[in-house]
Amino acid sequence: IMEVVYVCEWEKRPKNNHCPSIPLVCAWSCRNLIAFTTDLKNEEDDKELSHMIHIIDTEHPWDVYSINSGHREVISCLEWDQSGSRLLSADGDGEIKCWAMKEHLVNSWESIQSSSVDGDPIVALSWLHNGVKLALHVEKSGSTNFGEKFSRVKFSPSLTLFGGKPMEGWLAVTVSGLVTVSLLKPNGALLSASESLCRLRGRVALADIAFTGGGNIVVAATDGSSSSPVQFYKVCVSVVNEKCRIDTELLPSLFMRCTTDPVRRDKYPAVTHLKFLTRENSEQVLLCASSQMGSIVECWSLRKEGLPVNNIFQHRSPVVGEKQPMILKWRILSATNDLDRVSAVALPKLPISISNTDLKVASDTKFCPGLGKCFFFTVTNQSLQLFRKGFPQGLEVLFFFYSCPQLHMIRVSPSMGQMLDMNTLLRHLLFLLEYCMVTGYDWWDVLLHVQPGMVHNLVEKLHEEYMRQNQALQQVLATRIVAVKASLCKLSSATAARANDFHAKLLLIAISSTLKSLLRPHVLNTPDKSPGDRLAEICTKNTDTDIDKVMINLKTEEFVLDGPPLQSLQQLIQWVGDFVLYLLANLPNQGSIVRPGFGFLRDGPSLGMLREMMVMIRIWGLLKPGCLPIYTATSDNQDSMSLLFRLLTKLWLCSRDESHPQEPDETLLDECCLLPSQLLVPSMDWLPINDGVITKIQSKHQLRLQFGKPYTLPGLNPNSQMEIFSRSPASQRMDNLRCLHMGICPTEESKACTRCGCVTMLRSPNKTNAMKQWEQRWIKNCLCGGLWRKIPNT
């Protein structure tokens, strides 16, 4: 059931063998970033502790960014925001700090805000809800419509600004029973307030925070004794006269059932874990009571029940329209038998529920993405035991645990030890990949369960499902599905070349949209279609192989631009020209599937996009010849663009009808064979081999890694299919976003994508507005949507 994927350990210090302690708190973001804390002894004074926060991305676990947090006491809480780009930390002295990426790099962080409740330890912490909630409908997993599988749920933010925009901020609960709220104003200022949870303040040992659809906040709290009630409070946050206001209200409470059992009344004296099932589900809570030797877990649900009427009033004639009074009451749903002492409780990231209807659907479909599934962990004698509550099949669960001084990443079998047929397993993985596409969540943990033999079928099925969506949704997901396909194809050597094709397609789409955005209508009144749309329509209808005849049908005045923007974009234009030449020159070698570029030879829409850009570039070349792509021709009178456009059009005509593609005729193949003798064919610089761990953990052998030391690839087999993507030490390094050569040993600081490995310079060498606008598009994320990390100079 459980399998260690990799182990990453700290390097011991030779001076005094000091290493970080066992992590105290950890948190996992939706972007697959892990934050955890350790206490590190000072080398000069063993009594002084540094409270450290360490942040890694799961794809490059050795690249840890360690922060001396500056907290005076032990860090008690870590909490990621909904975007996975900011982190909250709170300590035993009541101090809360907000951390954000510096220059949008996952391995560079800084503190941007802080608040404090002096001397009052924080026991629970959460960001305010932004009002975005997506429901997952397992019962419709067989539907072809994404809108039926995943639907937007009406959910109000915790607090809104003018116009309904959600206000950002955080909420914390202290050990003395205070609730404190800090709001981030648009101007960067912090607005804070504190209020008691109830009139009679008492000690709070454990607490958790959830949200309701109406914009309210629910806090669950206990003093740590199983004989005491678990209290629930409604918290409302508002801003009145530029001041933060907090209103609290007591909700129905509950006593754990084990305390009413004469056999177990004194067996489990302490409540050790208290969690809402999800942050958007305040009506289902999980409780764990423990002793030194064992634990028991109970799950409760809040339900509406009719209030019994006294016998005196039962015979009274009912008034028209009168309804039975209702009350809210906690009811126990399930409980475990006696367990070994539970050390941790893990809940799946997906929306979960344990209602009877949901559990029946999970049983019928053999797919339960978190439905009624919780994991309880016990650690005894340095071994890990797992207890599951719920159905066996379903969600690909991923979790990790630590033992000083190591981090273990563990993969849990999707079937929890039971056999699933391949079609069922593919359907489950497809459903989760679709969910990641729609929500924007990172799909790294789903890839852990994809075997190389599944890649081709998953890519094909994902494309089929995507093509069944309406045109508007296809446009929204156009780049995200390409990024998912690229990630999948890297998992198998048979499809590795297609991964490069998908990354090239992402760059092609981005360049096309950027060049088209420069076009402006000649007259002020807004036409029915933009110049870019008219260009695409005319190029689709006009099948002429002569580029100049296609230009005649266009309004060339819409293409008139100043010289500087065109000249500054020359490196992007050059990439388009080189790419067209590379594809056509390799058309006769199409039988070799492993060759990069093969996927474009049957991709009608991408070939049509290249054809449109060739027309645009041709027109701009009349205005500014310096922006044209440069070709090295064997003849001085060779019109290279006309030749390439003619061959490209013939190839596009063979594949524009995707349902009935045609094979290129012999004449086209012969002309393409002659291209290397007419023009110097460039060697396209494809993306480097991904140095992350996802492509190395498909086997059953765990990786041994060390924090601070990059993982090096084992020696490649000379006959390996992956060899064509390798780089020699003397090869030029490429800026994959700016399409610039950086030299053999670049001196400029660079950053790389955590997902695809795309490399680009950290600082911009450009001064023109057009190129700066291109660079600003990728300041936060890569073309594929991955995050950036700073890499050392080679």
TrEMBL record:
Alphabetically ordered keywords of this record: Activator, Nucleus, Repeat, Transcription, Transcription regulation, WD repeat
Pfam family for this entry, one: Med16_N
SUPFAM superfamilies, A to Z: WD40 repeat-like (SSF50978)
Domain Mediator complex subunit 16 C-terminal: 721-790
Localization: Nucleus
Top-level taxon of origin: Eukaryota
Signal sequence region: none
Domain spans labelled Mediator of RNA polymerase II transcription subunit 16 central helical bridge: 432-620
Annotated WD repeat ranges: 68-99
GO CC field: mediator complex; nucleoplasm
Keyword Glycoprotein recorded: no
GO biological process: positive regulation of DNA-templated transcription; transcription by RNA polymerase II
Entry-linked InterPro entries: MED16_bridge (IPR048616), Mediator_Med16 (IPR048338), Mediator_Med16_C (IPR048339), Mediator_Med16_N (IPR021665), WD40/YVTN_repeat-like_dom_sf (IPR015943), WD40_repeat_dom_sf (IPR036322), WD40_rpt (IPR001680)
Record family assignment: Belongs to the Mediator complex subunit 16 family.
Function of the protein: Component of the Mediator complex, a coactivator involved in the regulated transcription of nearly all RNA polymerase II-dependent genes. Mediator functions as a bridge to convey information from gene-specific regulatory proteins to the basal RNA polymerase II transcription machinery. Mediator is recruited to promoters by direct interactions with regulatory proteins and serves as a scaffold for the assembly of a functional preinitiation complex with RNA polymerase II and the general transcription factors.
Subunit structure as annotated in this protein's UniProt entry: Component of the Mediator complex.
Protein name per UniProt: Mediator of RNA polymerase II transcription subunit 16
